């Protein structure tokens, strides 16, 4: 089998193939950041990011629906839980009932063609606040 016949991981979605097929930069190549919190009804403005808010899962459709109708094709989700039991391993990050995972499920059901990425930083989920896992020597 020739290596050119293998579909690489970055090409598994039509949108990522389009992004990587040309050398240009336009609005279709940007991901809209969405901050998800664990209060399902939340809509809290973020003072340090004008025009941005923390959204609860139950409010996502009202926010994202109009944007998808206007042509939004990709988003990146950032988890901002306020009430999770943080630990040194960042365990809440992959909780099936956590805000990011619930948001992915809801958005995938509502907008199957929407390209969804997630932030994998653990700082919001660890008790030490670092982005990754620490071992005995740091």
TrEMBL record:
Q: What is this protein called?
A: porphobilinogen synthase
Q: Which GO terms describe its biological process?
A: protoporphyrinogen IX biosynthetic process
The record's listing under SUPFAM superfamilies reads: Aldolase
Question: Native species of this protein?
Answer: Hericium alpestre
In its keyword annotation, does this UniProt entry include Iron-sulfur?
Answer: no
- Offer a single GO CC term for the protein: cytosol
Q: Which UniProt keywords apply?
A: Heme biosynthesis, Lyase, Porphyrin biosynthesis
Function, in words = Catalyzes an early step in the biosynthesis of tetrapyrroles. Binds two molecules of 5-aminolevulinate per subunit, each at a distinct site, and catalyzes their condensation to form porphobilinogen.
């Amino acid at each position: 089998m020739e290596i050119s016949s293998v579909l690489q991981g970055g090409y598994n979605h039509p949108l990522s193939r389009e992004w990587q097929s040309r050398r240009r930069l336009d609005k279709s190549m940007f991901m809209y950041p969405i901050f998800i919190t664990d209060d399902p009804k939340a809509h809290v403005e973020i003072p340090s990011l004008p025009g941005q808010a923390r959204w609860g899962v139950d409010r996502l459709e009202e926010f994202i629906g109009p944007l998808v109708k206007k042509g939004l094709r990709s988003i990146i989700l950032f988890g901002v839980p306020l009430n999770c039991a943080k630990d040194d391993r960042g365990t809440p990050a992959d909780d099936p009932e956590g805000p990011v995972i619930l948001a992915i499920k809801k958005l995938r059901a509502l907008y199957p063609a929407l390209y969804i990425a997630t932030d994998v930083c653990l700082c919001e989920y660890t008790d030490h606040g670092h982005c990754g896992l620490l071992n005995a020597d740091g």
